[in-house]
Design brief:
This protein has one domain: 2-Layer Sandwich (Nucleotidyltransferase, domain 5), CATH 3.30.420.40. It is built from 13 helices and eleven strands. A six-stranded mixed β-sheet has the order 3-2-1-4-6-5, sandwiched between helices. Strand 10, helix 10 and strand 11 form a beta-alpha-beta unit. The longest helix is centred in the C-terminal third of the chain and has 24 residues. The protein is globular, with a radius of gyration of 19 Å. The mean pLDDT is 93.
Length: 386
């Protein structure tokens, strides 16, 4: 099976075509380009010889094929992006970049569903997995979006190959350090058992992360696009962590503090997951910024008792990030053979429900009911958790 994975990153869209555990082709395009010229992505895909496409899946759904989607626009906007058409329209009026990206995603994925139908599939996030106990999901939505789960799958495979051990002997914590969001996912026995998603983790580069409820109460009214702001980038004009690190190394005191804030918060979230997986033997790092040696060294300096390493992904990958590779690998494992054992071991194929199923806060029950209703209405055979 030739399976194309598409990871819609905050900074870039990464595309990778995988067959039999090797990369046949890879491509990266700026997210800003996609935002204002969505046809650019369709043009690239239409030239490829592919069997299946794993489309951008946002906050995730149980494994779903395009011909099961009854209303593509609602499926994408209300379910995958947890947004609304009114929020989308307002963000475009305000010329917010995230709004352009969401609109582009909605149009692009709708075209993919229309053109490829049952050859397009969508995949779950961490919270959908049956391997994560329900009590860890209470009042959670973002325990790791699809890209964080996908990157973790590549990390599991890497450690299994490197250590020459079966999946059930892999116990790791994977840290995905992306352009905008940071996610930390715990793996025990080769199964994902917990996760701290980007909008729930400690402060990240783009997002404020877990927010003090006193701040939430003080602001009172929030907009959908507020999830794209409030991070360390608010403090500096520079929006590239590599450049912030370079300036820190030149002695700029504020930059030093910003880098320390990012790294210390990453390590704090790792420490939280070590409670869940105390027998962790390796902490793996994936994402755009783990290629920066300074980040790697700083994390290693703060974690002395457990090995910290970057990940070598699918054979032949040189450009695209692990999340895109994971998208393709999951899809191949669902429809093909090479990654089938890994997908079945992680129980991704058994994912069910919605991201809102475990909300119990009285003020959020309306949100929960809405998301559950949308799922039932826009998917032909919804996989509900019983």
């Amino acid at each position: 099976m030739k399976v194309l994975g598409i990871d819609p990153g905050t900074r870039s869209f990464d595309l990778v075509l995988v067959e039999d555990g090797r990369v046949l082709w890879e491509y990266s395009i700026d997210t800003a380009t996609i935002a204002f010229k969505p046809d650019a992505l369709i043009d690239v895909i239409s030239r490829l010889d592919i069997d299946y496409i794993v489309a951008p899946s946002g906050y995730g759904v149980p494994v779903t094929f395009g011909d099961e989607v009854l209303n593509p626009q609602r499926f994408i906007v209300e379910l995958l992006l947890l947004s609304s058409f009114s929020d989308l329209a307002r963000s475009l009026e305000l010329k917010i970049m995230g709004g352009y990206v969401y609109q582009s995603l909605a149009n692009t994925v709708s075209i993919l569903i229309d053109r490829y139908k049952g050859r397009v599939l969508f995949i779950p996030a961490v919270i959908h997995l049956p391997t994560v106990p329900w009590y860890r999901k209470i009042n959670k939505v973002d325990m790791g979006t699809v890209d964080k789960l996908a990157a973790t799958l590549i990390a599991i495979d890497y450690v299994s190959r490197r250590e020459n051990i079966d999946y059930d002997n892999v116990s790791i914590i994977n840290v995905e350090v992306g352009y905008g969001y940071i996610g930390v996912v715990a793996v025990r026995g080769g199964k994902i058992v917990d996760g701290i998603g980007g909008s729930y983790a400690s402060i990240g580069l783009l997002t404020t992360g877990a927010l003090d409820l006193e701040v939430a109460c003080g602001v009172r009214e929030w907009n959908r696009w507020d999830v794209w702001s409030g991070g360390v980038y608010e403090l500096v004009e520079e929006k590239d962590l590599d450049e912030i690190i370079r300036r820190a190394e030149q002695g700029e005191s504020k930059m030093i503090e910003y880098v320390e804030a990012i790294v210390e918060n990453i390590v704090k979230d790792i420490a939280r997951e070590l409670v869940v997986t105390p027998k962790t033997t390796i902490i793996t790092l994936t994402g755009r910024y783990v290629r920066n040696k300074k980040i790697l060294d700083m994390i290693r300096d703060k974690i002395r008792d457990v090995e910290v390493t970057t990940v070598n992904g699918i054979r032949g990958a040189t450009r695209v990030k692990e999340a895109a590779q994971g998208y393709a690998a999951i899809g191949e494992g669902v429809v093909g053979e090479y990654y089938r054992k890994l997908v079945e071991h992680t129980e991704i194929n058994k994912a069910c429900g919605t991201v809102a199923d475990y909300i119990i806060h009285p003020r959020a029950l309306e949100m929960k009911e809405k998301i559950q209703r949308v799922y039932r209405e826009v998917v032909a055979k919804p996989k509900l958790c019983i």
